[in-house]
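Progress against Task 2.4 (sequence-to-structure conversion) is shown through the following example record, which the project officer requested during the mid-term review.
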Amino acid sequence: MDLLQEYSSGASDSSSPEEDEEEVIGKQPRLQVPDPSTQPPLSVPELIIYSQNYSDTQMNRKSIFLYVPWKPTRDAVSKLNAATSKVLAAKNILLAEYKWTPIHQQRSNLGYHITLHPNIYGEEYKMKVLSDNIRNALITDVKYPKNSIGYDEERLERNNRLSKLLGKSKDDGPDQKSINLRFQPKLRVFQSPNSNKLFLSGLIEYSDEVQQFFTSVNEVIENSVDSLQLEKSPFYSLDHHHITFSTGSPNTVGQQYEELDALNQELESVDVGDIIGDVNVSISEIVMSQLGQSQQVDSFPFDI
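Structure tokens generated for the chain above:
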């Protein structure tokens, strides 16, 4: 997800128009410049007025990204890195042709997260309605996985250690419950929709309840997006909820991995369950962030 870009994860690549212009400088025919004193007074072209109005209209449009944040413990991050190393070691081409950077070492404001939906575009007032719809639906429409709801034991243990160091009494319990998820024992590589970067990610383990939960969340978002006639990015599809562990940037400019499906089939045989099988993915809210902005727009706690 992991600021915000099409898939939450890296800056979009774009070529500089100045580079193309440099090639034709000096090749233009000499133009006859008319005497300003002989010209009629200038009027404001209609095109300029139209462009200004268009720009003003665009200023009222927003681009947002919906995701579920996850703040892993230091021990969990170590396990994610170990799983990443095991997978990359098993597939040498990924090590040889890409430079990999763990999410926790990147400057992104997203951090570790679960992407919920392609980027959404529309007028600001519609985004406010979307925000209200999601907040209300988390209370009335979302089907929560009851067997996965509980306290974040890792956070509780961490807080107790901190309290002990500070000489405070032991914490009786966290003030908020969360949905506690697990990873599948394998990783998968995803391609960025707007660059040549790769994302090495852990797949969320689906029980029937967990899958129903994510399905109900997606339905809430989709129904609201459709009813408000908002636009969504056509360059992103979500076939399995996941969390990116590390981002791979190609060592060669323009390089693109062409056989991603074949690669992921090979990674099926690389079992990392012994490393990340007990990692607790504790989630408690949905965040709506504006693309290109460092501050989050809104957050919606789960009604659990």
